[in-house]
Design a protein that fits this description.
- The protein is mostly helical and about 450 residues long.
- It contains eleven helices and no strands.
- The longest helix has about 60 residues.
């Protein structure tokens, strides 16, 4: 096979001429049976009827011709199907240019491929770096959030993200970023709910501490509700927000009812008080306290309302005690007055009795003093006899003489119990003994 450009001999399967570098097209390749060149000039007439140029055989390519010499009178090119003899070219010039072009194309292609490869790798690195930043931002969000309720989903996603970064798997980045965005939104919602739960807890703890009194029978119930609320916060159970809010509202309603019962119980201490028995200061003090309780209840400040209601009960108790003391004092005064009246009445009765008794005695003082002449002056013999026997009669002696017995029995003070024979004169005192002898001296 010969090069159609320079005519040099080349291999049948060569793609380029080794002499000039011209590309060998398929149409230039010989058929299975190559045509031997005719040097006889028998076919010097070409198809166009023009005689072909005859030439003398000489040294041609591959036949010892000098380099750069042009073959003379060479036979027709067996590969020239058109019957035209190829135009000879300068040996090596066109092939070198073609080779340089090919090499340049290859270099450009290699460079372009390398650039494209570098750009692809750079883009991949940029995608991985951007994805790593997105994962780190999500991790920062996790560090500042409670994600207990979505722990499994977060763990699975972070493991897949780490695997994608290590494997530089950019194909999975888009799907992983979507999952990160979804979990980030869920985490934001959960964080907001947990914040609301914490605000709910703080709000109601302060509310109860400031405005409500927790009875002992409700303390455990209150502690259990706040423990459940704290557990929901710790578990990140933001979906419990509405349920916990409802429980807190029920708790407040229950505390209000219990607190109101306590207030009513304290205020009932004034029900038994009678305003008619109270002083103006006592009335004003109780009414002022009652007004404060009413205002505090309307403001739902039950804790202070209970304190004021208890103060009202204490004041009511003090007023009741003051009223009772005044009543007792009044009763005591009345009793003392009655006692004084009774005592005066008894004293008057005793005085009158003594006066009457004195009138019943002839000598009333004969047992307590010595009688004088003046005491006996003007007494008759009968009166002197009765005056002497008065001293016996005081000691209960009976009398045999019916007139004397009848006289003493008519007296209220006389109580004759001792027979005359049994009477003992030793019962007389010195005044009585002396007075008996003194009266006898004046009897006839």
């Amino acid at each position: 096979m010969f090069c159609p450009n320079c005519g040099s001999s080349i291999d049948d399967d060569s793609l380029f001429c080794t002499n000039c570098g011209a590309k060998i097209e398929d149409e230039d390749r010989p058929s299975q049976t190559p045509v031997r060149p005719d040097f006889s000039g028998a076919q010097g007439q070409e198809a166009g009827g023009q005689p072909s140029q005859t030439f003398s055989p000489g040294p041609g390519p591959g036949m010892g011709a000098a380099p750069g010499s042009r073959p003379v009178n060479a036979g027709p090119n067996p590969q020239n199907t058109r019957g035209n003899q190829p135009k000879p070219a300068k040996k090596g010039k066109g092939g070198m240019i073609a080779l340089i072009v090919i090499i340049a194309v290859l270099v450009v292609a290699i460079i372009a491929g390398a650039v494209i490869f570098i750009m692809i790798q750079r883009n991949r690195s940029q995608q991985i770096a951007a994805f790593r930043d997105a994962v780190e931002r999500f991790e920062e969000q996790l560090d500042s959030s409670n994600y207990t309720s979505i722990q499994d989903a977060v763990s699975d996603l972070m493991a897949e993200c780490q695997q994608a970064i290590e494997n530089r798997d950019v194909g999975s980045i888009s799907e992983l970023e979507e999952r990160i965005n979804d979990l980030s939104q869920q985490l934001t919602a959960i964080t907001d709910q947990i914040t609301s739960l914490e605000e709910l807890k703080n709000t109601y703890q302060e509310l109860i501490a400031d405005q409500y009194y927790v009875p002992e029978d409700l303390q455990q119930y209150v502690d259990d509700i706040f423990a459940s609320l704290q557990q929901a916060i710790d578990d990140g159970a933001g979906d419990q927000l509405e349920n916990m809010r409802s429980q807190m509202e029920e708790l407040i309603q229950g505390l209000e009812e219990k607190n109101q019962e306590m207030i009513d119980s304290f205020l009932s201490a004034g029900d038994s008080l009678d305003e008619k028995n109270m002083t103006d200061d006592e009335k004003n003090s109780l009414q002022s306290c009652l007004d404060e309780v009413t205002e505090l209840v309307e403001a739902k400040n039950f804790k202070q309302a209970i304190e004021r209601a208890q103060e009202y009960a204490n004041r009511a108790e003090q007023v009741a005690m003051a009223i009772l003391a005044r009543q007792e004092e009044s009763e005591e005064a009345a009793r003392q007055s009655e006692e004084e009246a009774r005592r005066q009445s008894e004293e008057e009765a005793r005085r009158q009795s003594e006066e009457e008794a004195k009138n019943d005695y002839i000598c009333p003082d004969s047992s307590t003093r010595y009688l004088t002449e003046a005491d006996l002056a003007g007494l008759s013999d009968w009166e002197l006899l009765l005056a002497r026997n008065e001293i016996y009669a005081r000691h209960g002696r009976q009398f045999d003489d019916p007139d004397i017995r009848a006289y003493f029995e008519s007296k209220s003070w006389y109580n004759g119990t001792i027979a005359p024979d049994a009477f003992d004169a030793s019962v007389f005192n010195q005044y009585e003994k002396a007075n008996i002898a003194f009266i006898q001296e004046h009897e006839q």
